[in-house]
Amino acid sequence: MAPGAARLALPALLALTGVLLPGLGGTQISVHPPEATIPRGGTVQVNCSASCDQTPTLGLETQLTKKEVAHGSHWKVFELSDVQEDSRPICFANCGKQIMASMSLAVYWFPERVELSPLPRWQPVGENLTLRCQVAGGAPRRNLTVVLLRGEEELSRQPAVGEPAEVTVTVLAGRDDHRASFSCRTELDLRPGGLGLFQNSSAPRQLQTFVLPETQPRLATPAIVEVGTQWTVNCSLDGLFPVAEAKVILTLAEKKLDSTSQYIKDSVLAMASVKANSQKEGIQQLACVVTLGGRDQKREENVFLYSFPAPNLTLSESEVSEGTSVTVECEAQAGATVSLEGLPSESPGHRAAFQLNASAADHRRSFSCSAALTVAGHLLHKNQIRELRVLYGPRLDERDCPGNWTWEEGSQQTLRCQAWGNPVPELKCHRKGDNALLPIGDLRPVKREVAGTYLCKAQSPRGVTSREVVLNVTYHQNNMAIIIVVAVAVLLGTVSGAAYLYNRQRKIQKYKLQKAQEAAAMKLNTPATPRLCRRPLLGNQVTNVKPIPERNSASSTTHPPSRPLAQLSARALLASCASPAAAMPGPSPGLCRALLGLWAALGPGLFGLSAVAQEPFWADLQPRVALVERGGSLWLNCSTNCPRPERGGLETSLRRNGTQRGLRWLARQLVDIREPETQPVCFFRCARRTLQARGLIRTFQRPDRVELVPLPAWQPVGENFTLSCRVPGAGPRGSLTLTLLRGAQELIRRSFAGEPPRARGAVLTATVLARREDHGANFSCRAELDLRPHGLGLFSNSSAPRELRTFALSPDPPRLAVPRLLEVGSERPVRCTLDELFPASEAEVYLALGDHRLSPDITLEGDALVVTATATANAEQEGARQLVCNVTLGGESRETREDVTVYSFPAPVLTLSEPSTPEGKVVTVTCAAGPGALVTLDGIPAVVPGQPAQLQLNATEDDDKRSFFCDASLEVVGETLSKNKSAELRVLYAPRLDDSDCPRSWTWPEGPEQTLRCEARGNPAPSVHCERPDSGAVLALGLQGPVTRALAGTYRCTAVNRQGEAVKEVTVTVEYAPSLDSMGCPEHITWLEGTEVSLSCVAHGVPPPSVSCVHSGEAGVVEGLLHVVREHAGTYRCEATNAQGSVAKTVAVTVEYGPSFEEQSCPSNWTWVEGSGQLFSCNVDGKPEPSVECIGSEGASEGLLLPLASPDSPPGVPSIASGLAPGIYICNATNRHGSMVKTVAVSTESPPQMDESTCPSHQTWLEGAEAAGLACAARGRPSPQVRCSREGVPRPQRLRVSREDAGTYRCLATNMHGTDARTVTVGVEYRPVVAELAASPPGGVRPGGNFTLTCRAEAWPPAQISWRAPPGALNIGLSSNNSTLSVAGAMGSHGGEYECAATNAHGRHARRITVRVAGPWLWVAVGGAAGGAALLAAGAGLAFYVQSTACKKGEYNVQEAESSGEAVCLNGAGGGTGGGTGAEGGTEAADTAEAQAGGEVFAIQLTSA
Q1: For a Cys staple, 460 with which of 74, 271, 425, 904, CB 3.0–4.6 Å?
Q2: How confident is the model at residue 786 (pLDDT cuts 50, 70, 90)?
C-alpha cells in the first residue's frame, strides 16, 4: 500500500471509531494516541473524538503549532508540528458540558556533544586518574545513561544529570593502561516506548602511562680527557616504563652531544662519542638528562679537559756519516717534566739535549724522550722515539764471518757469512785460483771439491772490505782395510798354533800320567817305608800311603769322621795354591786369587748354615699376641722343629670349632671369644722334654652406643650447664678417646690411655658456659677406639646431636606506647618494645585491649622486639580500659599495662541550602555536631554546645568555589578534641574575558611552537572560539603548533556558556627574520669605470629590517653615490638586521674598463729558447678580457702570426713543435670598451746538448800513460761550459794513469738555459800479475791423497791462465778458466815444481810452486810388525796356560782331592819291586820320572780308615 493511501486511511478509521463510540455508553472523550514519543522538531497527529448525542464542539488546546487535517461529526484530527519540548495537549468537547482528555507527548533528541575531557599527556603509574565526560543535550534525561569505557571495558555507568551533564570516575593508572583508549558513550534507551537503543560515543582519547624512578642516572665517563682525543660517554637508567619513550640528552658544556640509545627490557643506555677541542680546555660539566612523561632525572659529572701534546724529539740530522756529531734535543710544553735517554743528570725541565759522535754502533739507535705532566692529581706520560741512521762502510768480522770452516764430506751445511754496513753491502766469496763462487746461506750437501781458500769481498758505495775464509772438507781413505786384513791373518795363525800346542801338550801329559800310575802300581806291590813328601798338605800328616786306584776300578772305602764340607774345600784350595814352583803345575796366581776371593764371599754363609743345624728344639704359637673383636673367632697355629714329636696340643678355656693337624704342627679355630683377656698355651713332647709356647688373646668392642645426656629445653645465657657422655661396653678403655663437640668444634677431648686392658666402657662429663652463639648449636659426643697400633683400624662413632636453645631476657618490663584516648570506630596504632631479647624470634607476645586480644605484627630489630597492632574500639567498650603487653621467652615473662579511655565523637555535618546556585541568589550554610560538642562556622562559634551554627550570603562571582569550614570541639578526660568538615559553593555566572587570561595582542617569532591561550572565566566553564572576520580562519586555542606568517591578523574571540557570552578582539603579530632575495638585492652587479652609481639592497622582515653593505677588507659602510673606479670592484657583504635576527648576502661588483698593455705582462723584447716549446705570453689588462693578436711586420717574420700562450693553459706545456721566426711583431688588444697596440721584438737561443759524437760514453786509458782529461764537448747558444768529475771518491791529480782512475765519470754542460749531463765509463787496462799461487792442503800430500793448486791473476783485460806440470804427472784436472789445478790420488810422479803463467795483450807473468808427495808407509810397516809380535806373544802365553791346564787335568782328580785328607808321594827310587827284572825296569822308570819331575811326583788318593 502506498504511503499516501495509509495517511488518508487513518482519519477514516478515527471517524469510524467516533461513530461507533456513542453506542457504547455515556458521554466520553478520548485522545489517540494517549502517549507518544517523537524526535525534537518532529510532527505528530492527534485524534480527538467524543461520544455525544448531538454534534459536539471539538478542539485541542496546546502551545504547539497545530493544524486540523481531518474531521468528522464526532472527531477531529490535528497535526502538531515543530515539537521542541515535552507537552501535554488537552482534547476538549462540548456535549452539553465540557469534557477533557489529555495525552502525554514526549520529545527525544540525541546528545549534541559527547566529549571526554582531555587526558594528561603522561600519567604516572600508581597515581589516580580522573576521567570526566561532558554530555550536552539529549532527552529524555531519565532514559539517558553515560558509560565510561577503557577500550571495550566498562568502567562506570551513571545517569546523565544536569545540563551539561558531567560524569566522573577515578581509576588507578597502571602499566597496562599505557596506550589504552578511553572513551565516553551515551545510551538513550527508548525501547520501552517502542523505539530502539540509541548510542553516541565521544572521540577516543589515548592514555600514556609511565614510570620514572627517583634514582639518578648512572653516568660513566673518564675523569680526565685529553683535548683532541675521542672518548665514549655512557648514561644508563633502570626501571623505566615505557622504556622506548624515554629520551636521553647528553650535554658537554651545555652543548648537546650526538648520542645513540639502546633499550633493553626496562633500561636505557645512551652512548655518545665526544671529541673536545682546545677551546673547552679546563673543567667542563657533563650532564645526562633522562626525560619520560614530562619529568626529568639528571646526573652531572665534572670532566677535566687537558692539552698534553707529545714531546718534540729532534735529531740535528737523522741520517749522518760515521764520525759526524749529532745533537739530540727533546722539548715538551711548559709545566711538563722531560727525561731524555742518555741525558746527563741535570735538574728536570721541559727541555733536554745532548750530543754524540755517530759511530757504526749507533746505526738504527732509538732515542726515547719521555714527558710527564700532572693533571688533576693524575700523572700522565707521553713518549716520542726517533731513530738515527749512520752511514758506514762494510764490516766483516770473525763473529759474523768466521775465517775457518771444517765440514765432513756428505753432511748438510750452510755457509753463513754476513757483512754489515749502511747501505747494506753486496757480499761475494770467490775461491782463490779458480775464482769459483761459494754459495752463502744455502743448505746443500758438502763435497770435497768445495774445499779451498775463499776471498769474501763486501762492497757498498761507502767502500770495500775483504776477508779470507778457509773451507776444509774431511773424508775417509781405505788404508785402514789393509791393516785390518793383516791383523786378522796374524790372529788366525796365532789361534791355530795355540790350539795345536794345547792338543799336543795334553796328549803328552796324559801319556806321562799313565806311565806314572803304572810305576806307582809296581812300587806298591813292594813293601817299603814311604818317604815323606817334600811339602805337607797344610797341616795334615800322611800316615800311610796306599796305591791310587784306577778311575774305573770299583773299591769300597770307609770315610773318615765327617768334617765340615767348607773346611775340606778350603784346605784343598789352599793346598793347590801353595804348591812350589817345582811341583806339578797348578792354577796360576791370578786364578788362585780369584778363587780365594769367591770362597771368602761364600764361606760365611756356609758356616752359618752349619751353625743353624746345631740349634735346640722349640715350640711356636702364631699369632703370639692377637686382638679379636668381642664374639669373633681366631685360628691359632702351634708348631715345632722337633723331627718326630711324641704328642702336642693347645690348652685354652675358649670354645673350639675346628682342628687341623700335621706331623709337627697343629691349627685350631677359637670361636665366640668374649673374655677380655686369655692366654692359650701350645705344647709338644720331644725327646722326653716338653716344649711350650704361650700366647695372649685380647678382645675389643666397638663403640656402638654413644649416648649424650639430654640438654635443658632452654638455657639462660651466662649460666653453666653440664654435658655428659656415656659409651657402655666399648674397649679396651686404654685405646678409647671421647670428645665432646659443639658442631664441628672440639670442646674437650680425653684419652683413657693407661687404663687396665680389661677395663671397658667410659664416661666423660664437662661443664660449659652457655653463650648466645650456642643457640641452635648441635652438641654431640664422638668416641674413637684406636686399634691402629695393633694392626687394626680406627673405629669411631658419634651420638645423636642434641640442639641447645639459649636465651637472654631483660629484667625490665616492655615499653608500651598507646594513645591515652581511643575513639569508637577509629583505628589507632599500638607499639610494644622490649630490648636485650635473645633470640627475639622465639619470643611469644600477648597484646590485648580489655578482653579483646589484638593481632600484632612483630618486627625484629637486632636484639629488640617491636610489636605493633591496630586498636579498634566499639560502642560497648566506651569508658576506661586497660591495654596489656606480655612477652614470654624461655619460660620467663615480662608484662606491662596501660590505661586507655574509649570515647565517641562523630564528625560535624556541614550543609549548603544550594551547593550550586546562580549569581545573586541567597544561600544558607549550616554546621551541626553531636551532643556536648561546640561548633564553629568560619570562625563564628555557636551560642551553646550542642546547638548548630548558621550563615547566610548573597552569592556573587567571588563566592564561586568558596570553601566553608565547620569545626567541632569536645572535651574528653581533660583533653580537648576537635573535628572539622568543609564544603564548596559553586556560583553560576556569565563568561568573563580578562586581559590576564586572554591578552588583546600576541607577538610571536616565526618557527617555534607556541600555544595561544585565551581563557574565559565563568561557571559553567565557557567555551572560547576565535575566528578572523576577514577570512574566517579559526585559531586553535590551547594546542601547541609551529608559528607561521599566515597566523598574523586580528581575531574575534567569543566565550559562551549557559549564563551568557563575552566577545573580545585579539591581534596576533608574527615576527620573522629578514630575508634578501635576488630581486631586491641581486648577487652580481656590473659597473663601468668613470660612471656614478649607488649600492642598495632591499630586505623583507617583521619588524622592518635595516640594511648595510660593507666592502670586503674595509670597515666603512657604503652610502650614497659612488664615482666608479677599478678599486670599487670586489665583494660586498650586505647585512639586514631586525629583532628576530639578521641575514647576510654577498654581492659581487664587477668594474669593466678598456684594454691596456703593461711591460711586465707583455714584454717588448722576448727571447724564445729552442726546444722549450714556450709560447709568447702577452696578458692585457681589461674587462671584459680583451682579445690579443700579434702579426709580424718586417724581416723574416713579416705577415706571420705569433703564437700566444693562453692564460688558462698550464705552464711548461709545449705548444710549438717547430722553430719560431725572429723579428718585429705588432700586438693589438680589443674589447667592447676600446683597443690598444704594442710592438714586440722576438729573438731565439738554445740550451746545451751532448751526444755520443761529442762525448763518447765509454773511454779506455792505459796504466802508466800520461794523464789526460776526458774528451767531451756540447752544443748550445750561448756556448755551454763542460765539467767532468768522477762519481764517489774524487780522482786525485796524477801525472800518469793509474788503475784507480777507472770508474764512472759524470760530465755536465751548462749555459743560461739549462744543463745537460752525460755518464762516461772509463776503463784502465794493465799487464797481468800472478797475485796468488797456493796449494791445498799446504805442506805436502800423502800418496793416494788429493791436492789443489789455485792460481789467481790480476789483469785487464782478463789474463789467460796456463800451467806447466812435472814430467810424468798424469790425471791432472783443470777448472773452466784454468785457475785451479786438481789431482786426485796423488802418486810420486805428481811431486815436483808447477808453474802458473798469466797472459793478456799487455804482457805475461808466471809463478812457481813445489808439491811434495810422501806417505807414512814405514810407520805402517813398523806398526804391523809390532802388532804381529804382540799377537804371537799372546798366542804363546795362551798355549802355555792351556798346557798347564791340560797337565793339571791329566794329573789331578779334583773330586777325589775334596774327599780325601791324605796324600801319597810317588818316587821311583824310594821302594823296591817284587822281582829282579822288575827292579831294573823300575830304576829306569824312576830315572825317567826324576828327569821330568825334578826327583818327586805327587798324587792324591782316597784311602779308607
Answers
A1: 425
A2: very high
